Amino acid sequence: MPRIWFSSVVILLSLIFYTYYKISQFLPEHRVLAFLFTLLLFLIMIGWELIYRYNVFLSDQFWFRALAWIGSTLLGVWVTFILFSLAVDLCRLILWLVMILSHTSTLNQVQNLFLSKWLTITILIISLLLSGLGLKTALSGPQVVEVFVPIKNKATILKAVKIVQISDLHVGPLIRHDYVAKVVKKVNELKPDFIVLTGDVADGDADALAKQLESLANLKASFGKFYVTGNHEYYWGAGQWIKTMSGLGFTPLVNENRVIDFSGVKILFAGVTDVSGGQFLPEHKPEVERAVYSQEASDFKILLSHSPRVLCDAQKVGFNLQLSGHTHAGQFFPFSLLVPLAHKYHTGLNCQNEIWLYINSGTGSWGPVNRFGVHSEITVVRFR
After folding, report:
1. What confidence tens digit (pLDDT) does each residue in 31-43 have?
2. What CA–CA distance (Å, rounded) separates 180 from 175?
3. Whose CA is closest to 366, among 136, 168, 128?
4. pLDDT of residue 111
5. CA 98 → CA 30, 105, 116, 137, 230, distances in Å?
6. 180 with 215: CB under 8 angstroms?
7. Could you tell me if residue 326 is left (phi over 0), alpha (psi between -120 and 50 degrees) or otherwise beta?
8. Which residues pair with 301 in a beta bridge?
């Protein structure tokens, strides 16, 4: 068994055992019932995903979408509950060790059981409340975020440029045509010069989701619409997704670029495939040097990359700005506190030496329909 699969199984079994431990605190005299409830919870949370991978066309069925909504909502509550519980239990363990080492009298068993149960109940109530608020925020759709990127020694005409970025739509069983149409309406109201979509447009087969995406063809930009692949396209056939996005009026940038004349200023828009692309298609290994190469001179270079991790390479070859997504900025609290452990830059506008990086927090949602503390967004990039 490959190491990654072994690690995944170990983590999953650990989470199931820990969840059973927490549920058994509610049912201390009914261990079998607690175990069955744990299995049922995991079956609902992840079972719909397994069914969806078996037949993606089920996303058109009402019963399946209802199951997906229930499962993803429970997943949001569960993740919040587990993260808070782990933090509390870790603190309790440290306190217990300190008391043992300092020979301080500990709480008796009855008091310990009472404390454990009521702490767990409190955490569950907080998790339900936060997840409910996060669900409401996610359903409200993306907010428009305007960001100003400082420029030096560039033509002042760049200050008139308006780039609108959308990323991580994740159209699928949960995000459907109505949500996409809402995004399109908001983007068009901004009257952008350029529109960029930085990957993870959907989760599913391109043919199965064609009707859900058709509104993207109505996106209007004066100088063009550009698209790069995210990691999720490769799970469902990146080649077909590139064709689909091209059919919707986007210019896919597969380690290549286009130089656009904007009122006399030459802007190079380049795009690289996702950092995982080479694992699925050898020819889709991201190549920043190839993406920037052009026989036509340019005044300002912009790189579109789903993952922010190519920033150092982008800096070396002279890009001025990189637009990325992927991180979702953690998507919801308290999970958002863990994202910096995986990504040096994970949200908003960042600068590394002479290159600027903006990371969109995601226009849609993936996994739990939860956006507590981290709103989905449509980004308007301006210069000053």
Report:
1. 899 999 999 999 9
2. 8
3. 168
4. 53
5. 32, 11, 18, 41, 47
6. yes
7. left
8. 268
> Cα separation of 375 and 296, whole Å?
39
Residue 161 gets which letter from DSSP? -
Work out the angle at residue 167's Cα, subtended by the Cα atoms of residues 144 and 70, and round it to the nearest 5 degrees.
90
> Percentage of residues in the chain with pLDDT exceeding 70?
95
Structure tokens at 313: 């390479």
Confidence of residue 28 (pLDDT cuts 50, 70, 90): confident
Q: 3-state DSSP call for residue 289? A: helix
> The dihedral of CA 229, 232, 235, 240: what is its sign?
negative
3-state secondary structure of 212: helix
CA-to-CA dists, residue 220 to 69, 145, 188, 243, angstroms: 32, 19, 6, 19
Contacts of 256 (CB under 8 A, 6+ apart): 270, 271, 290, 291
Place of tokens 């889709």: 284
Q: Which of 78-87, 100-109, 280-289 has the lowest mean pLDDT?
A: 100-109
Classify 156 as helix, strand or coil: helix
pLDDT beyond 70 at 105 = no
pLDDT of residue 256: 97
Alpha-carbon span 362 to 347, nearest angstrom: 10
**Sole residue written with tokens 């080649």:** 239
d(CA 103, CA 98): 8
The whole model's pTM is what? Answer: 0.92
Domain boundaries, the chain: 3-138, 143-383
Secondary structure class of 106 (helix, strand, coil): coil
Neighbours of 367 (CB within 10 A): 18
- Asked if residue 286 lies in contact with residue 256, where contact means CB atoms within 8 angstroms, the answer is no
* Beta-bridge partner residues of 265: 262
CATH 3.60.21.10 corresponds to the domain 143-383: yes
Neighbours of 50 (CB within 10 A): 9
Strand-pair partners of 321:
302, 356
3-state secondary structure of 85: helix
**How many residues would you count in the chain?**
384
d(CA 265, CA 369): 42
For the chain, what is the mean pLDDT?
92
Nearest to 80 by CA among 360, 373, 376: 373
Determine the 3-state secondary structure of 250 from DSSP. Answer: coil
